[in-house]
Amino acid sequence: MSFENLGLHPLILQAVVEAGYTDPTPVQAQAVPELIAGHDVMASAQTGTGKTAAFMLPALHRLATPSAVRGRGPRVLVLTPTRELALQVSEAAAKYGRHLPRARVVSILGGMPYPLQNKLLSQPVDILVATPGRLIDHIQRGRIDFSRLEMLVLDEADRMLDMGFIDDVETIAAATPAGRQTLLFSATLDSAMNGVAARLLRSPRRIQIAAQQARLDNIEQRLHYVDDLSHKNRLLDHLLRDIELKQAIVFTATKRDADTLADALSAQGHEAAALHGDMNQRDRTRTLTRLRRGGLRVLVATDVAARGIDVSGITHVINFDLPKFAEDYVHRIGRTGRAGASGIAVSFASGRDGVHLKKIERFTGQRIHSHVIPGLEPRFKPHAGAGGAARSAPGIARKRSHAWSGDGHREGGRQRSFGDSRPGSGEGGSGGASRSRAPAAGTTRPSFRGR
Ligand code: AMP
Protein backbone atom coordinates (compact mmCIF):
# COMPACT_ATOMS: atom_id res chain seq x y z
CA MET A 1 0.00 0.00 0.00
CA SER A 2 1.41 3.37 -0.98
CA PHE A 3 0.22 6.86 -0.06
CA GLU A 4 -0.89 7.39 -3.67
CA ASN A 5 -3.40 4.53 -3.31
CA LEU A 6 -5.12 6.06 -0.31
CA GLY A 7 -7.12 8.53 -2.37
CA LEU A 8 -5.79 11.67 -0.69
CA HIS A 9 -5.84 15.09 -2.32
CA PRO A 10 -2.61 15.77 -4.32
CA LEU A 11 -1.70 18.82 -2.20
CA ILE A 12 -1.80 16.64 0.90
CA LEU A 13 0.27 13.95 -0.81
CA GLN A 14 2.83 16.61 -1.66
CA ALA A 15 3.15 17.56 2.02
CA VAL A 16 3.44 13.90 3.00
CA VAL A 17 6.28 13.41 0.54
CA GLU A 18 7.97 16.55 1.86
CA ALA A 19 7.64 15.17 5.40
CA GLY A 20 9.80 12.30 4.16
CA TYR A 21 7.23 9.54 4.54
CA THR A 22 7.47 6.80 1.97
CA ASP A 23 4.79 4.33 3.05
CA PRO A 24 1.70 4.67 5.22
CA THR A 25 1.92 3.05 8.64
CA PRO A 26 -0.59 0.23 9.34
CA VAL A 27 -3.03 2.54 11.13
CA GLN A 28 -2.83 5.02 8.26
CA ALA A 29 -3.31 2.32 5.62
CA GLN A 30 -6.42 1.05 7.41
CA ALA A 31 -7.98 4.24 8.73
CA VAL A 32 -7.51 6.69 5.85
CA PRO A 33 -9.69 4.88 3.25
CA GLU A 34 -12.46 4.27 5.84
CA LEU A 35 -12.40 7.91 6.85
CA ILE A 36 -12.38 9.20 3.29
CA ALA A 37 -15.40 6.96 2.66
CA GLY A 38 -17.12 8.84 5.48
CA HIS A 39 -17.29 6.13 8.15
CA ASP A 40 -16.90 6.68 11.86
CA VAL A 41 -13.79 4.92 13.11
CA MET A 42 -12.58 3.69 16.45
CA ALA A 43 -8.95 2.65 16.42
CA SER A 44 -6.62 1.22 18.98
CA ALA A 45 -3.34 2.90 18.23
CA GLN A 46 -1.03 4.86 20.41
CA THR A 47 1.56 7.52 19.83
CA GLY A 48 4.41 6.29 17.72
CA THR A 49 2.18 4.38 15.29
CA GLY A 50 1.55 7.38 13.05
CA LYS A 51 -2.00 7.83 14.36
CA THR A 52 -1.94 11.63 14.13
CA ALA A 53 -1.53 11.54 10.36
CA ALA A 54 -4.10 8.70 10.23
CA PHE A 55 -6.80 11.14 11.27
CA MET A 56 -5.28 14.43 10.16
CA LEU A 57 -4.75 13.48 6.51
CA PRO A 58 -8.43 12.58 5.94
CA ALA A 59 -9.46 15.64 7.97
CA LEU A 60 -7.42 17.83 5.62
CA HIS A 61 -8.81 15.92 2.65
CA ARG A 62 -12.25 17.16 3.71
CA LEU A 63 -10.96 20.71 3.90
CA ALA A 64 -9.77 20.53 0.29
CA THR A 65 -13.45 20.87 -0.69
CA PRO A 66 -15.10 24.13 0.41
CA SER A 67 -17.71 23.85 3.14
CA ALA A 68 -21.33 23.64 2.08
CA VAL A 69 -22.24 25.76 5.09
CA ARG A 70 -21.35 29.43 5.36
CA GLY A 71 -19.62 30.47 8.54
CA ARG A 72 -16.28 30.86 10.28
CA GLY A 73 -16.39 28.08 12.85
CA PRO A 74 -14.19 24.98 12.75
CA ARG A 75 -14.88 22.17 10.30
CA VAL A 76 -12.67 19.76 12.23
CA LEU A 77 -12.39 19.55 16.01
CA VAL A 78 -9.67 17.49 17.70
CA LEU A 79 -9.90 16.95 21.46
CA THR A 80 -6.76 15.85 23.30
CA PRO A 81 -6.08 15.14 26.97
CA THR A 82 -2.97 17.31 27.32
CA ARG A 83 -1.61 20.61 26.10
CA GLU A 84 1.54 18.97 24.75
CA LEU A 85 -0.43 16.55 22.61
CA ALA A 86 -2.67 19.37 21.40
CA LEU A 87 0.39 21.31 20.27
CA GLN A 88 1.79 18.30 18.46
CA VAL A 89 -1.50 17.71 16.69
CA SER A 90 -1.60 21.40 15.69
CA GLU A 91 1.91 21.19 14.34
CA ALA A 92 1.03 18.04 12.39
CA ALA A 93 -2.06 19.76 10.95
CA ALA A 94 0.02 22.75 9.87
CA LYS A 95 2.69 20.48 8.38
CA TYR A 96 0.38 18.23 6.37
CA GLY A 97 -1.96 21.07 5.43
CA ARG A 98 0.67 23.57 4.37
CA HIS A 99 -0.29 23.52 0.68
CA LEU A 100 -4.04 23.71 1.19
CA PRO A 101 -5.70 27.10 0.85
CA ARG A 102 -8.13 26.46 3.73
CA ALA A 103 -6.43 24.78 6.66
CA ARG A 104 -6.22 27.35 9.41
CA VAL A 105 -5.37 25.74 12.71
CA VAL A 106 -6.17 27.18 16.12
CA SER A 107 -5.36 25.55 19.46
CA ILE A 108 -7.37 26.36 22.54
CA LEU A 109 -5.60 25.24 25.67
CA GLY A 110 -6.13 25.85 29.32
CA GLY A 111 -3.86 28.44 30.90
CA MET A 112 -3.68 30.55 27.76
CA PRO A 113 -5.03 34.11 28.17
CA TYR A 114 -8.70 34.44 27.30
CA PRO A 115 -8.37 37.68 25.29
CA LEU A 116 -5.92 36.01 22.91
CA GLN A 117 -8.17 32.98 22.55
CA ASN A 118 -11.20 35.18 21.99
CA LYS A 119 -9.32 36.91 19.21
CA LEU A 120 -8.30 33.60 17.62
CA LEU A 121 -11.87 32.37 17.81
CA SER A 122 -13.30 35.52 16.27
CA GLN A 123 -11.42 34.79 13.04
CA PRO A 124 -12.19 31.99 10.59
CA VAL A 125 -10.99 28.58 11.82
CA ASP A 126 -10.80 25.32 9.91
CA ILE A 127 -9.20 22.98 12.43
CA LEU A 128 -9.63 23.53 16.13
CA VAL A 129 -7.41 21.52 18.47
CA ALA A 130 -8.38 21.80 22.11
CA THR A 131 -8.22 20.37 25.58
CA PRO A 132 -11.76 19.79 26.82
CA GLY A 133 -11.94 21.99 29.94
CA ARG A 134 -11.09 25.30 28.28
CA LEU A 135 -13.13 24.54 25.21
CA ILE A 136 -16.22 24.04 27.37
CA ASP A 137 -15.67 27.53 28.83
CA HIS A 138 -15.70 29.06 25.35
CA ILE A 139 -18.72 27.03 24.27
CA GLN A 140 -20.61 28.20 27.34
CA ARG A 141 -19.70 31.79 26.54
CA GLY A 142 -21.11 31.32 23.07
CA ARG A 143 -17.76 31.93 21.36
CA ILE A 144 -17.73 28.88 19.14
CA ASP A 145 -19.89 28.31 16.11
CA PHE A 146 -20.11 24.61 15.35
CA SER A 147 -22.51 24.96 12.44
CA ARG A 148 -19.76 24.03 9.95
CA LEU A 149 -18.37 21.15 12.01
CA GLU A 150 -17.94 17.98 9.96
CA MET A 151 -15.47 15.90 11.92
CA LEU A 152 -14.84 15.31 15.62
CA VAL A 153 -11.66 13.49 16.66
CA LEU A 154 -11.16 12.14 20.16
CA ASP A 155 -7.42 11.63 20.43
CA GLU A 156 -6.17 9.43 23.29
CA ALA A 157 -9.74 8.97 24.44
CA ASP A 158 -8.67 6.46 27.09
CA ARG A 159 -6.50 9.10 28.68
CA MET A 160 -9.31 11.65 28.59
CA LEU A 161 -11.41 9.09 30.42
CA ASP A 162 -8.63 8.48 32.97
CA MET A 163 -8.21 12.17 33.56
CA GLY A 164 -11.88 12.73 34.22
CA PHE A 165 -12.56 14.67 30.99
CA ILE A 166 -15.04 12.32 29.41
CA ASP A 167 -18.14 14.17 30.63
CA ASP A 168 -16.74 17.35 29.13
CA VAL A 169 -16.03 15.46 25.90
CA GLU A 170 -19.62 14.27 25.74
CA THR A 171 -20.93 17.76 26.45
CA ILE A 172 -18.78 19.13 23.63
CA ALA A 173 -19.92 16.37 21.27
CA ALA A 174 -23.54 17.22 22.08
CA ALA A 175 -22.88 20.82 20.97
CA THR A 176 -21.77 19.70 17.50
CA PRO A 177 -23.99 18.69 14.55
CA ALA A 178 -25.40 15.17 14.84
CA GLY A 179 -24.40 14.42 11.24
CA ARG A 180 -20.68 14.81 11.97
CA GLN A 181 -18.11 12.09 11.38
CA THR A 182 -16.59 10.92 14.68
CA LEU A 183 -13.23 9.25 15.28
CA LEU A 184 -12.01 7.74 18.49
CA PHE A 185 -8.35 6.86 19.03
CA SER A 186 -7.30 5.05 22.15
CA ALA A 187 -4.38 2.89 23.27
CA THR A 188 -6.82 0.12 24.15
CA LEU A 189 -10.40 -0.55 23.15
CA ASP A 190 -11.87 -1.91 26.34
CA SER A 191 -15.44 -1.91 27.65
CA ALA A 192 -15.18 1.68 28.90
CA MET A 193 -14.11 2.83 25.44
CA ASN A 194 -16.87 0.79 23.84
CA GLY A 195 -19.31 2.64 26.08
CA VAL A 196 -18.02 6.02 24.96
CA ALA A 197 -18.08 4.88 21.34
CA ALA A 198 -21.65 3.60 21.67
CA ARG A 199 -22.73 7.07 22.82
CA LEU A 200 -20.75 9.17 20.34
CA LEU A 201 -20.06 7.13 17.21
CA ARG A 202 -22.36 5.66 14.56
CA SER A 203 -21.65 2.12 13.32
CA PRO A 204 -17.91 2.70 13.64
CA ARG A 205 -15.35 0.65 11.77
CA ARG A 206 -13.01 -0.86 14.34
CA ILE A 207 -9.31 -0.82 13.63
CA GLN A 208 -6.99 -2.75 15.87
CA ILE A 209 -3.38 -1.95 15.30
CA ALA A 210 -0.96 -4.74 16.06
CA ALA A 211 -0.60 -6.27 19.45
CA GLN A 212 1.29 -4.39 22.14
CA GLN A 213 4.12 -6.74 21.36
CA ALA A 214 4.60 -5.62 17.78
CA ARG A 215 4.52 -1.98 18.77
CA LEU A 216 7.36 -2.41 21.22
CA ASP A 217 9.58 -4.51 18.99
CA ASN A 218 11.93 -1.66 18.24
CA ILE A 219 12.48 -0.93 21.94
CA GLU A 220 14.90 -3.00 23.96
CA GLN A 221 13.57 -3.33 27.49
CA ARG A 222 15.99 -3.83 30.37
CA LEU A 223 15.56 -4.19 34.09
CA HIS A 224 17.99 -3.27 36.83
CA TYR A 225 17.30 -4.42 40.35
CA VAL A 226 18.12 -1.77 42.91
CA ASP A 227 18.71 -1.88 46.65
CA ASP A 228 17.85 1.68 47.59
CA LEU A 229 17.80 5.29 46.43
CA SER A 230 21.55 5.73 46.50
CA HIS A 231 21.95 2.59 44.35
CA LYS A 232 19.41 4.04 41.88
CA ASN A 233 21.32 7.32 41.75
CA ARG A 234 24.62 5.59 41.05
CA LEU A 235 23.06 3.42 38.34
CA LEU A 236 21.41 6.42 36.74
CA ASP A 237 24.66 8.37 36.71
CA HIS A 238 26.34 5.39 35.04
CA LEU A 239 23.62 5.02 32.41
CA LEU A 240 23.64 8.72 31.59
CA ARG A 241 27.38 8.59 30.94
CA ASP A 242 26.87 6.08 28.12
CA ILE A 243 27.94 7.93 25.00
CA GLU A 244 25.31 6.12 22.97
CA LEU A 245 22.66 7.85 25.00
CA LYS A 246 21.77 10.89 22.94
CA GLN A 247 18.73 12.07 24.87
CA ALA A 248 16.77 10.45 27.67
CA ILE A 249 13.56 10.85 29.56
CA VAL A 250 13.80 9.76 33.19
CA PHE A 251 10.45 9.10 34.85
CA THR A 252 9.82 9.69 38.52
CA ALA A 253 6.70 8.95 40.55
CA THR A 254 6.11 12.48 41.80
CA LYS A 255 6.56 16.07 40.67
CA ARG A 256 8.73 16.81 43.65
CA ASP A 257 11.00 13.85 42.87
CA ALA A 258 11.29 15.12 39.29
CA ASP A 259 12.53 18.51 40.54
CA THR A 260 14.89 17.00 43.09
CA LEU A 261 16.38 14.54 40.65
CA ALA A 262 16.77 17.12 37.86
CA ASP A 263 18.63 19.41 40.31
CA ALA A 264 20.85 16.57 41.49
CA LEU A 265 21.67 15.54 37.90
CA SER A 266 22.47 19.12 36.94
CA ALA A 267 24.77 19.33 39.96
CA GLN A 268 26.54 16.19 38.67
CA GLY A 269 27.15 17.93 35.35
CA HIS A 270 24.32 16.44 33.28
CA GLU A 271 22.26 18.71 31.01
CA ALA A 272 19.03 17.96 32.83
CA ALA A 273 15.71 19.67 33.50
CA ALA A 274 12.36 18.71 34.99
CA LEU A 275 8.95 18.67 33.30
CA HIS A 276 5.78 18.29 35.33
CA GLY A 277 2.30 19.65 35.70
CA ASP A 278 3.12 22.19 38.42
CA MET A 279 5.35 24.20 36.10
CA ASN A 280 3.86 27.16 34.29
CA GLN A 281 3.28 26.76 30.61
CA ARG A 282 6.10 29.09 29.61
CA ASP A 283 8.65 26.98 31.45
CA ARG A 284 7.16 23.76 30.09
CA THR A 285 7.26 25.03 26.53
CA ARG A 286 10.80 26.30 26.99
CA THR A 287 11.96 22.96 28.36
CA LEU A 288 10.29 21.03 25.55
CA THR A 289 11.77 23.32 22.94
CA ARG A 290 15.24 22.77 24.43
CA LEU A 291 14.62 19.03 24.30
CA ARG A 292 13.46 19.15 20.67
CA ARG A 293 16.41 21.26 19.62
CA GLY A 294 18.88 18.97 21.35
CA GLY A 295 19.87 21.55 23.98
CA LEU A 296 18.74 19.25 26.75
CA ARG A 297 20.05 15.72 27.17
CA VAL A 298 18.04 14.50 30.12
CA LEU A 299 14.41 15.31 30.81
CA VAL A 300 13.14 14.23 34.24
CA ALA A 301 9.39 13.95 33.96
CA THR A 302 6.17 12.67 35.41
CA ASP A 303 3.72 10.55 33.43
CA VAL A 304 1.16 13.16 32.52
CA ALA A 305 3.69 15.84 31.58
CA ALA A 306 5.64 13.56 29.27
CA ARG A 307 2.68 12.06 27.53
CA GLY A 308 2.72 12.56 23.80
CA ILE A 309 6.28 13.89 23.65
CA ASP A 310 7.55 13.05 20.21
CA VAL A 311 11.25 13.83 19.92
CA SER A 312 13.22 11.64 17.57
CA GLY A 313 16.53 12.11 19.46
CA ILE A 314 15.33 10.22 22.52
CA THR A 315 17.39 7.04 22.59
CA HIS A 316 16.62 6.04 26.19
CA VAL A 317 13.71 6.03 28.58
CA ILE A 318 14.62 5.33 32.19
CA ASN A 319 11.97 4.39 34.73
CA PHE A 320 13.65 5.70 37.86
CA ASP A 321 10.40 4.75 39.57
CA LEU A 322 8.14 2.15 38.01
CA PRO A 323 4.80 3.51 36.79
CA LYS A 324 1.75 2.71 38.86
CA PHE A 325 -0.19 1.29 35.93
CA ALA A 326 1.01 -1.15 33.32
CA GLU A 327 -0.41 0.92 30.47
CA ASP A 328 1.66 3.90 31.59
CA TYR A 329 4.72 1.73 31.16
CA VAL A 330 3.84 1.40 27.46
CA HIS A 331 3.22 5.13 27.14
CA ARG A 332 6.51 5.92 28.83
CA ILE A 333 8.72 3.63 26.84
CA GLY A 334 7.00 4.73 23.63
CA ARG A 335 8.78 8.09 24.05
CA THR A 336 11.83 6.37 22.58
CA GLY A 337 12.01 4.39 19.34
CA ARG A 338 10.05 7.10 17.54
CA ALA A 339 9.24 6.96 13.85
CA GLY A 340 10.87 3.61 13.27
CA ALA A 341 14.10 4.28 15.16
CA SER A 342 15.24 1.91 17.89
CA GLY A 343 15.31 2.74 21.55
CA ILE A 344 16.27 1.44 24.97
CA ALA A 345 13.95 1.40 27.96
CA VAL A 346 15.52 0.79 31.36
CA SER A 347 13.48 0.17 34.50
CA PHE A 348 14.71 0.22 38.08
CA ALA A 349 12.89 -2.18 40.38
CA SER A 350 13.30 -3.12 43.99
CA GLY A 351 12.79 -6.53 45.53
CA ARG A 352 9.22 -5.56 46.34
CA ASP A 353 8.23 -4.82 42.73
CA GLY A 354 7.88 -8.44 41.57
CA VAL A 355 4.09 -8.48 41.29
CA HIS A 356 4.08 -5.12 39.62
CA LEU A 357 6.64 -6.22 37.07
CA LYS A 358 4.59 -9.29 36.29
CA LYS A 359 1.57 -7.11 35.61
CA ILE A 360 3.59 -4.99 33.22
CA GLU A 361 4.93 -8.06 31.46
CA ARG A 362 1.46 -9.52 31.16
CA PHE A 363 0.17 -6.27 29.70
CA THR A 364 2.91 -5.99 27.09
CA GLY A 365 3.20 -9.71 26.49
CA GLN A 366 6.96 -9.34 26.73
CA ARG A 367 9.53 -10.18 29.36
CA ILE A 368 11.82 -7.51 30.68
CA HIS A 369 15.19 -9.09 31.07
CA SER A 370 17.36 -8.09 33.93
CA HIS A 371 20.80 -6.64 33.49
CA VAL A 372 23.65 -6.07 35.87
CA ILE A 373 26.39 -3.52 35.54
CA PRO A 374 29.65 -4.82 36.99
CA GLY A 375 30.40 -2.94 40.18
CA LEU A 376 26.77 -1.85 40.51
CA GLU A 377 25.13 -5.20 41.21
CA PRO A 378 22.23 -5.29 43.69
CA ARG A 379 23.12 -6.75 47.06
CA PHE A 380 19.92 -8.77 47.27
CA LYS A 381 19.10 -11.76 45.12
CA PRO A 382 15.83 -11.19 43.26
CA HIS A 383 13.44 -14.15 43.03
CA ALA A 384 13.58 -15.85 39.68
CA GLY A 385 10.50 -15.36 37.56
CA ALA A 386 9.32 -11.97 38.69
CA GLY A 387 9.86 -9.55 35.91
CA GLY A 388 12.57 -11.63 34.32
CA ALA A 389 14.62 -11.68 37.47
CA ALA A 390 18.37 -11.66 37.21
CA ARG A 391 20.24 -14.87 37.28
CA SER A 392 23.69 -14.75 38.68
CA ALA A 393 25.32 -16.56 35.78
CA PRO A 394 27.10 -14.21 33.44
CA GLY A 395 25.64 -13.89 29.98
CA ILE A 396 26.53 -12.04 26.83
CA ALA A 397 28.93 -9.17 27.17
CA ARG A 398 27.12 -6.03 26.15
CA LYS A 399 29.23 -3.55 24.36
CA ARG A 400 26.69 -0.78 24.52
CA SER A 401 26.41 -0.41 28.26
CA HIS A 402 29.15 -2.71 29.50
CA ALA A 403 26.41 -4.69 31.13
CA TRP A 404 25.62 -8.32 30.74
CA SER A 405 22.28 -9.89 30.19
CA GLY A 406 21.44 -11.90 33.27
CA ASP A 407 20.00 -14.79 31.31
CA GLY A 408 21.95 -14.33 28.15
CA HIS A 409 18.85 -13.39 26.24
CA ARG A 410 18.71 -10.69 23.72
CA GLU A 411 16.06 -9.99 21.19
CA GLY A 412 17.28 -10.31 17.64
CA GLY A 413 18.07 -7.29 15.50
CA ARG A 414 15.72 -4.49 16.36
CA GLN A 415 13.11 -3.94 13.75
CA ARG A 416 11.95 -0.80 12.17
CA SER A 417 8.26 -0.44 12.70
CA PHE A 418 7.73 1.61 9.61
CA GLY A 419 9.55 3.77 7.07
CA ASP A 420 13.10 4.79 7.65
CA SER A 421 12.31 8.39 7.16
CA ARG A 422 12.24 10.57 10.20
CA PRO A 423 10.72 13.94 10.49
CA GLY A 424 13.09 16.85 10.71
CA SER A 425 13.98 17.47 14.31
CA GLY A 426 13.44 21.16 13.87
CA GLU A 427 9.79 20.49 13.22
CA GLY A 428 8.72 21.63 16.64
CA GLY A 429 10.67 24.83 16.49
CA SER A 430 9.08 26.51 13.58
CA GLY A 431 5.68 25.29 14.68
CA GLY A 432 4.17 25.46 11.25
CA ALA A 433 1.49 27.87 10.31
CA SER A 434 -0.62 27.26 13.36
CA ARG A 435 -2.04 30.35 14.87
CA SER A 436 -1.69 28.60 18.17
CA ARG A 437 1.90 29.57 18.47
CA ALA A 438 1.52 31.37 21.73
CA PRO A 439 0.01 28.47 23.56
CA ALA A 440 0.07 28.42 27.24
CA ALA A 441 -0.81 26.48 30.26
CA GLY A 442 -3.41 23.91 30.10
CA THR A 443 -6.21 22.11 31.56
CA THR A 444 -6.57 22.78 35.20
CA ARG A 445 -7.73 19.37 36.24
CA PRO A 446 -4.89 17.53 37.84
CA SER A 447 -6.90 14.46 38.77
CA PHE A 448 -5.21 11.53 37.16
CA ARG A 449 -6.55 8.54 38.96
CA GLY A 450 -6.02 10.27 42.23
CA ARG A 451 -2.39 11.04 41.57
P1 AMP B 1 2.26 9.62 16.03
O1 AMP B 1 1.96 8.18 16.29
O2 AMP B 1 1.18 10.32 15.33
O3 AMP B 1 2.68 10.29 17.31
O4 AMP B 1 3.51 9.69 15.03
C1 AMP B 1 4.77 9.21 15.38
C2 AMP B 1 5.85 9.73 14.46
O5 AMP B 1 5.79 9.06 13.22
C3 AMP B 1 5.79 11.21 14.16
O6 AMP B 1 7.10 11.71 14.33
C4 AMP B 1 5.40 11.28 12.70
O7 AMP B 1 5.99 12.40 12.07
C5 AMP B 1 5.96 9.99 12.15
N1 AMP B 1 5.22 9.42 11.03
C6 AMP B 1 3.86 9.45 10.86
N2 AMP B 1 3.53 8.80 9.73
C7 AMP B 1 4.66 8.34 9.19
C8 AMP B 1 4.96 7.57 8.01
N3 AMP B 1 4.01 7.14 7.20
N4 AMP B 1 6.26 7.29 7.76
C9 AMP B 1 7.24 7.71 8.60
N5 AMP B 1 7.04 8.43 9.72
C10 AMP B 1 5.76 8.73 10.02
Strand content: 15-25%
Helix content: 25-40%
Q: How would you describe the shape?
A: globular
**Radius of gyration, CA atoms, in whole angstroms:** 22 Å
Small ligands present:
adenosine monophosphate
**At the fourth CATH level, what is the homologous superfamily of the largest domain?**
P-loop containing nucleotide triphosphate hydrolases
Largest sheet: 9 strands, mixed
List the domain count as a whole number.
2
Using DSSP, what is the number of strands?
Answer: 16
What fold name goes in the CATH topology slot of the largest domain? Rossmann fold
- Describe the strand arrangement of the main beta sheet, using strand numbers: 10-11-9-12-13-8-14-16-15
Number of helices: 17
The CATH architecture of the largest domain would be 3-Layer(aba) Sandwich
Structural class: alpha/beta
Would you write up a description of this structure?
The chain is 35% helix and 16% strand. By secondary structure, the protein is an alpha/beta fold. The chain has 2 domains: 3-210, P-loop containing nucleotide triphosphate hydrolases (Rossmann fold, 3-Layer(aba) Sandwich), CATH 3.40.50; 213-439, P-loop containing nucleotide triphosphate hydrolases (Rossmann fold, 3-Layer(aba) Sandwich). A 9-stranded mixed sheet has the order 10-11-9-12-13-8-14-16-15, sandwiched between helices. Strand 3, helix 5 (114-122) and strand 4 (127-130) form a beta-alpha-beta unit. Helix 6 (132-140) packs parallel to helix 8 (166-174) and helix 15 packs across helix 16 (354-364). The longest helix has 14 residues, at 83-96. The radius of gyration is 22 Å and the shape is globular. The model is unreliable at 386-451 (pLDDT under 50). The protein binds adenosine monophosphate. Adenosine monophosphate binds at residues 21, 24-25, 28, 47-53, 310, 338-339, 418-419, 421, 423. Adenosine monophosphate is lined by residues 21, 24-25, 28, 47-53, 310, 338-339, 418-419, 421, 423.
